[in-house]
Amino acid sequence: MSIPEIRVEELKKRLDAGENLFLLDVRDEYEYEISNIGGQLIPLPELAKRMNELDTHLNIVTVCKMGPRGAKAAQVLHNAGFTHVWNLTGGIHAWSDRVDHSVQKY
């Protein structure tokens, strides 16, 4: 099964509209400290053992640097029974390029 993707422009629009979206940042802590868009940090290697911190009814958007780790995290969540999960296409880099240039790329 392919995981649904959300483009940065759509995410920005939905956040600005006040939609209740949970941003799950799955990068490493040092990456999160360099730049982030306000998501909760649970690094991908820790996700399986920390899934109990998440509500299966949340609308979750997985965020990483460029997309692949977010896609993997979204697949892990989906396999665990989470039904409302999207991966942020292009990750933090796409957000920096197309939504907020102040978010540092690394």
Quick one: overall form? Answer: globular
Question: What's the multimeric state?
Answer: single chain
Provide the residue-averaged pLDDT.
Answer: 96
CATH top level? Answer: Alpha Beta
Query: How is the CATH topology named?
Result: Oxidized Rhodanese, domain 1
- The CATH architecture would be 3-Layer(aba) Sandwich
Q: Helices and strands: which structural class?
A: alpha/beta
Stretches where pLDDT falls below 50 for ≥5 residues? none
Instruction: Profile the largest sheet.
Output: 5 strands, parallel
Number of helices: 5
Task: Describe the protein in words.
With 106 residues, the protein is α/β, with parallel strands linked by helices. It has one domain: Rhodanese-like domain (Oxidized Rhodanese, domain 1, 3-Layer(aba) Sandwich). It has five helices and five strands, in the order E-H-E-H-E-H-E-H-E-H. A five-stranded parallel sheet has the order 1-5-4-2-3. Helix 4 links the parallel strand 4 and strand 5. The model has no long low-confidence stretch (mean pLDDT 96).
